[in-house]
Design goal:
This protein is mostly helical. It has helices spanning 4-29, 34-39, 46-73, 78-105, 112-119, 126-158, 162-209, 215-221, 249-256, 266-274, 278-310, 321-333, 337-375, 381-402, 410-434, 440-459, 468-472, 476-494, 500-511, and strands spanning 226-227, 233-234, 241-242, 245-246.
Length: 514
């Protein structure tokens, strides 16, 4: 017989998952075309677009990876959060409006690869093919990180075997994404974004009130402060200390570089393309920036607070600090396990809001960009929708296989995928929107060089049996982004300038409003 508290939490989970599936069924009735399935008919309101973009962005990393790294290594890990906040602000203020305008002018583009094809008038579909392949490769890893987060969540809360938990999370995400497409994803993401923020802000306040003794004493009791065997003093509360070692300038720069990834994330950029009008987009920007600030600050506080709250009872898996905090606060102190279950659903929300978006982007790349635009141009909407839904299943299965190892790090998987997408697409998106001299050759060179740099940097042992990242500690996104931009500039300037028609479209974006 299950304990009463476990039954209460399980009830909260079942109700929450039932709501998500219900949204998928409701959205399916409103989804009759590929534009509905991939962009929701370009009819998103400001609040939905904002919270959908941010919820799909942050994933389980926000509630598990970030607090876990700060719990384990100290507040120095907050440089990642600082970089992400700067990237979020720049993305909404400088990229969102211009991208929305340009995708409408460039053949009403519905996906990022299709925008590149239309932007550069690529009749041979070279850039569309390459960018679609890059999306599928790196989103497989990204989706795997979300599924791994789900597996760890169910395992930590219910004691369910990691692999069974992995399957449960994958199936639920599959159902509502398969049925409702973009509208279902954005509607559920809106709910999930609100739930995530509520959990992030309420739980730390309650946990702080239950700390036994002074905050500083409990930090010391956890054994995280003091001198390390290498002779360094671990100042846990310092932004310039990282797990007992002083931060180098390049370490801080590498963590701030996470912010560069935003302008290359297809699952975030597609929200800009789908907003109803520029008035709603302006509203979205304000909501998204405020949400991002509050959630990142709260996630960092949870990591630090976890040290004081658990004190000498050091957690074996630091990425479970928020889950364990919720369980302890609500089950032991307040005897309100059902409410605790709702907040744990906030973690599940973070996981699902990213996984569903990634599945949809992969589906659009395969069905719209590859199948419709390359393999079978005469395919009708019904057939493309069928291929999309089949792709959702196939990608989820492959991601499930990648996430099979229970020892896989959420932070590591997200880091690799974020670097790959940011390096491949970030510089090209910026150049496409703001530099009219950019041409097809430069754009292709930028995508290929950025993506390959990350693969070589993170996966190939070229430095004495180590990867270059392991040997240097420099984040591959920082290097890949710079190399991609360099290739774009060099190849664009060394090849033929864009034609008059392309330049006219570029100028038209300045005057367009809608």
């Amino acid at each position: 017989m299950l304990p009463t508290s476990t039954i209460a939490v399980l009830t909260a989970f079942v109700l929450y998952l039932a709501v998500l599936i219900g949204i998928g069924i409701w959205s399916m009735k409103k989804t009759s075309s590929t534009e509905d399935y991939f962009l929701g008919g370009r009819g998103l309101g400001g609040w939905v677009a904002a919270l959908s973009a941010q919820a799909s962005d942050m994933s389980g990393w926000l509630l598990m990876g970030l607090p876990g790294s700060i719990y384990a290594l100290g507040t120095g890990q907050a440089w990642i959060a600082i970089g992400l906040f700067i990237g979020t602000v720049c993305n909404w203020l400088f990229i969102s409006k211009r991208l929305r305008r340009y995708t409408i002018i460039a053949g009403n583009s519905m996906t990022l690869p299709e925008f590149f094809e239309n932007r550069y008038h690529d009749r041979k579909k070279v850039i569309l093919t390459i960018s679609s392949i890059v999306i599928v490769i790196f989103f497989l890893v990204y989706t795997a990180s979300a599924l791994a987060s789900g597996g760890k969540l169910f395992n930590a809360v219910f004691g369910i075997d990691y692999h069974i938990a992995l399957a449960i999370g994958a199936v639920v995400i599959l159902i509502y994404t398969f049925l409702g497409g973009f509208l279902a994803v954005c509607t559920t993401d809106f709910i999930q974004g609100m739930l995530m923020l509520a959990g992030l802000m309420v739980v730390p306040i309650l946990a702080y009130s239950f700390i036994d003794g002074s905050f500083k004493e409990q930090i010391v009791a956890s054994g995280i402060t003091g001198y390390t065997p290498d002779g360094y003093y671990n100042d846990y509360m310092s932004l310039f200390s990282n797990g007992g070692k002083p931060y180098r300038f390049i370490d801080i720069l590498s963590q701030l570089a996470w912010g560069l990834g935003y302008c290359g994330m297809p699952h975030i950029l597609v929200r800009f393309m789908a907003v109803k009008n520029e008035k709603e987009l302006k509203k979205s920007s304000a909501v998204a920036i405020i949400w991002c600030f509050l959630s990142l600050v709260s996630a960092c506080i949870i990591g630090v607070l976890g040290r004081a709250y658990f004190g000498s009872n050091v957690l074996e898996d630091s990425e479970n600090v928020f889950i364990q905090m919720i369980n302890s606060v609500f089950n032991n102190n307040l005897a309100l396990p059902f409410i605790g279950g709702i907040f744990i659903c906030g973690i599940l929300a973070a996981i699902m809001s990213t996984a569903d978006s990634q599945l949809l982007v992969c589906a659009s790349s395969v069905s719209k960009d590859i199948y419709k635009n390359i393999v079978k141009p005469d395919a009708d909407d019904k057939k493309v929708l069928q291929v999309s839904r089949i792709t959702v299943i196939a990608v989820a299965m492959l991601a499930f296989i990648i996430a099979w190892d229970p020892e896989s790090s959420i932070m590591g998987l997200v880091s690799d995928a974020w670097a790959g997408l940011g390096s491949a697409f970030g510089p090209v998106v910026v150049a496409s929107l703001f530099w009219k001299r950019t041409n097809l050759y430069g754009a292709v060179a930028g995508i290929v060089s950025g993506g390959l740099t990350v693969i070589i940097w993170d996966y190939i042992p070229l430095a004495g049996g180590q990867t270059i990242y392991a040997a240097t500690g420099i984040y591959s996104l920082l290097v890949g982004f710079a190399i991609s931009f360099l290739f774009i500039i060099v190849f664009s300037l060394c090849t033929k300038a864009p034609g008059r028609e392309i330049l006219d479209e570029f100028e038209k974006v300045q005057k367009f409003a809608g």
